[in-house]
């Protein structure tokens, strides 16, 4: 048993964690109260790498603490990359001020968690082992027959949990942070399980030119291999939008957007003499300009970083049949309503605004906004699709924290009449993000990502943009 554990640690250190030391900015934290010999070390560090768990302000993990329903919702929500933006919920006892309000509502929407009726959720109630087994079974799609014992069996049969020394599952025992971390990490990565084994049963093909295989199900985990377009992968299971795959000796997580049952998703658009893309105008909107410098950090102006990025996106789109128009191509001030009028007058097909974020120095990451009108309409749906496509590519390119796709009523995305998004590349006020915003090479990567996101969006809508992917990196 000890030997197995030691071997497993070595395999994990070599296979999963070695690349973290150098390039990855999200290198795993350490906790004062979790030594390398701690029985939950591997699992806790695995979750910490993906920012699924974090420690106390004084650097402890507090493994013996109990887990509340709100904390469980947040951990599962982060693992599945659910929308964690704090917001109003359907529960009287979970206000938008609750740190987990977003995760609670998202998990309830996905039927991973439920309330107690009459608008009560009990966010501060302590979770027991049986409830945890049900949550994990629902979150990871295990068939468990709806009962506590079924959920316990679902976890035990997979080597995620073991029974207590008396042979029972201990469903009524309070769950500790240590146990929850161990179970969650094992559910995510089968290599952490007791006697790890998993069935690879379905075949899919890589549809992206280059696809990262990661050690965990988010862009915060390091790349451990790369696949190329057309490569066949065997799939085991899904974690949120990520799939655990194997291809030869390569094994790990890939984003589900870039694998499909066929290499080339057939285009429903019939080929014609003139490209159907030629009639589509894409408006790129670099934020701020002139007297409005936007956010400032480390001597860098937002207006400068986003203009250069936008010009690079334009240079890429100019090599395609698309018609590309910029709201500004130099350092001038333009009112927000004038940017909106510009796009509406052109009858633009899509609108992409580029910005950089600002907050405290610790805030980091990439986020993309769209405007969700009260009534669901085509533009809302398409805006969200476009935002998701660009966000995924930006996160892939810059490897910053994935802050997700969010709703907001910014004028340029609210008053424009076409699918419209606003991308916040990173935080100009954060040292790491700022370094990327400042660097022409990293701006090129952001421009490539926005361009690829736009292609992904059109591809998703059935347009044949296959050849246009090659413009990047030429
Ligand atoms: Zn801005």
Model description:
This is N-acetylmuramoyl-L-alanine amidase. It is an enzyme of class 3 (hydrolase). Keywords: Cell wall biogenesis/degradation, Hydrolase, Signal. GO terms for molecular function: N-acetylmuramoyl-L-alanine amidase activity. Residues 1-27 form the signal peptide. The chain is of the alpha/beta class and 474 residues long. It has 3 domains: 30-192, no CATH class; 202-260, SH3 type barrels (Roll), CATH 2.30.30.40; 276-471, Aminopeptidase. Helix content is 33%, strand content 17%. The strands form 4 sheets. The protein has a 6-stranded mixed β-sheet with strand order 11-8-12-15-13-14. Strands 6-5-4-1-7 form a 5-stranded antiparallel β-sheet, with no helix packed on it. A two-stranded antiparallel ribbon has the order 2-3. β4 (232-239) and β5 form a beta hairpin. α5 crosses α6 (148-157) and α10 packs antiparallel against α13 (440-460). The longest helix is centred in the C-terminal third of the chain and has 21 residues, at 378-398. The protein is globular, with a radius of gyration of 23 Å. The chain starts with a helix and ends in a 14-residue tail after the last helix. Mean pLDDT is 88; it is low at 1-28 and 266-273.
């Amino acid at each position: 048993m000890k030997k197995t554990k030691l071997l497993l640690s070595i395999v994990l250190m070599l296979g999963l964690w070695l690349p973290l030391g150098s390039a990855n900015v999200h290198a795993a934290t350490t906790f004062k109260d979790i030594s390398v010999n701690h029985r939950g070390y591997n699992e806790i560090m695995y979750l910490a790498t993906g920012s699924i768990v974090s420690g106390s302000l004084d650097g402890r993990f507090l493994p013996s603490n109990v887990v509340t329903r709100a904390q469980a919702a947040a951990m599962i929500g982060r693992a599945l990359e659910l929308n964690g933006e704090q917001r109003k919920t359907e529960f009287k006892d979970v206000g938008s001020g609750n740190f987990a309000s977003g995760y609670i509502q998202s998990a309830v929407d996905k039927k991973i968690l439920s309330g107690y009726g009459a608008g009560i959720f009990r966010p501060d109630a302590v979770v027991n082992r049986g409830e945890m087994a049900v949550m994990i079974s629902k979150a990871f799609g295990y068939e468990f027959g709806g009962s506590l014992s079924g959920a316990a069996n679902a976890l035990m049969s997979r080597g995620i949990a073991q029974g207590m020394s008396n042979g029972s599952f201990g469903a009524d025992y309070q769950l500790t942070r240590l146990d929850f971390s161990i179970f969650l990490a094992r559910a995510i990565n089968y290599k952490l399980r007791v006697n790890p084994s998993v069935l690879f049963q379905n075949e899919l093909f890589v549809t992206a030119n280059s696809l990262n295989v990661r050690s965990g199900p988010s862009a915060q985990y390091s790349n451990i291999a790369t696949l190329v377009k057309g490569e066949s992968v065997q799939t085991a299971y899904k974690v949120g939008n990520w799939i655990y795959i194997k291809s030869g000796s390569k094994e790990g997580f890939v984003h589900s957007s870039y694998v499909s049952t066929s290499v080339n998703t057939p285009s429903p658009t019939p080929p014609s003499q003139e490209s159907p893309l030629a009639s589509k105008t894409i408006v790129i909107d670099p934020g701020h300009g002139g007297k409005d410098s936007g956010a400032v950090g480390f001597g860098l102006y937002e207006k400068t970083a986003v203009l250069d990025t936008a010009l690079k996106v334009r240079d890429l789109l100019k090599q395609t049949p698309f018609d590309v128009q910029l709201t500004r191509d130099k350092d001038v001030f333009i009112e927000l309503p004038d940017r909106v009028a510009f796009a509406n007058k052109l009858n633009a097909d899509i609108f992409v605004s580029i910005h950089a974020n600002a907050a405290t120095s610790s805030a980091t990451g990439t986020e993309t906004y769209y405007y969700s009108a009260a009534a669901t309409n085509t533009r809302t749906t398409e805006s969200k699709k476009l935002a998701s496509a660009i966000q995924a590519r930006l996160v892939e390119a810059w490897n910053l924290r994935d802050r997700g796709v969010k709703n907001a009523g910014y004028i340029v995305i609210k008053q424009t009449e076409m699918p419209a998004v606003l991308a916040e590349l990173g935080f100009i006020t954060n040292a790491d993000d700022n370094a990327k915003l400042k660097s022409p090479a990293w701006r090129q990567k952001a421009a490539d990502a926005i361009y690829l996101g736009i292609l992904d969006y059109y591809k998703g809508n059935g347009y044949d943009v296959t050849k246009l992917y090659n413009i990047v990196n030429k």
